[in-house]
Fold:
Amino acid sequence: MAEEYRDLYCHQPFYNDRYGSGSNGFTFSGSSSSAYTQDASLTANSSFHNLQMLDPPYMTFTEILQGSNDNNALAGAFGLSRTSSSEAFSRVKDEPKSVVVGAGDYVGGSETPATPNSSISSSSTEAVGNEDSSKNQKENPMKEAMEDGEDASKKETITKKKGEKKQKQPRFAFMTKSEVDHLEDGYRWRKYGQKAVKNSPYPRSYYRCTTQKCPVKKRIERSYQDPSIVITTYEGQHNHHVPATLRGNVAGMLSPSMLAPSLSLQDGPMFPRELLLQIPHMYNYGAAGSTSNVYQQNFTPFEQLQLPDYGLLHDIIPSAFHFPKQEN
DNA sequence: CGTTTTTGACCGGCGC
DNA sequence: GCGCCGGTCAAAAACG
Structure:
């Protein structure tokens, strides 16, 4: 199971100030089945701190996007310099208030059932479970995110081919420190399920992209370790672009290069890059589907989101900050 | 009235 | 084989 979480990288959080003192930053961790081989060996004791300690220089957001030719484009879009080892993602104000930590798990296209993810679930859950580490709230929610399984298209797969093993879709998880569960990411989602999470008082919600034929799903759950953290796991790749109809139009924030078809609709594994397109919700903060104006946001140009580097995650995450409570 | 959410049932995988 | 578990289905309800 440990390997499930290997290849975690820490990234600079970005901050998105909103709502007065509010801000929302995040760090990004990516992993891939093989591209990266650093072994973080996160255990139940893993903490953000540990993550931060990952030996290899943590990847930067843009680095994660590597493998694509859009690096620079993207970096540019985000107003980042891809040389920095730790890139600030964004922020409008200072005050690191909220943080998002991400974990990536790319299991795309592997025919081999390599690691039985499912088995991980229960065990890892338990591992993390039970404790009440009130102080140690940096347990490692990522684990929670990754714990569950892979079995993406179960029935669908079945109908198509029964013997065939549900093939794993690229997955990408990240944590967001927010009181809002469902973060706006520019896409439209339909909830199709909700399940109680073992050892957690918070349920996990399952969403599917509403665009026809789009296979992307996402799960959202709140870390019981640190209820202020929301764990979002994306699975699959959008076969379309961000709908330009949402409030505020997230797509409008993206540079043409980011939206260019070449970006993701055609070739190969573009897992991180593709999924990152969904990240803009970090900036575009607000409650998904929220009707509250409180969360309405003025979009901030990426250029203004440049951030200075921040210290260790554990120095950031604990920072207190609260969005007004609100459910979608 | 079309779309989304809710929620219990159902399913397949897995461990015992 | 059985029960647990995560994930999904789908009918009904809620929503706009």
About this structure: Confidence is low (pLDDT under 50) at residues 1-164, 246-328 of chain A. Residues 118, 121-122, 148-149, 151-156, 192-193, 195, 197-198, 204, 206, 219 of chain A lie near DNA strand C (CB under 10 Å from a C1'). The radius of gyration of chain A is 18 Å.
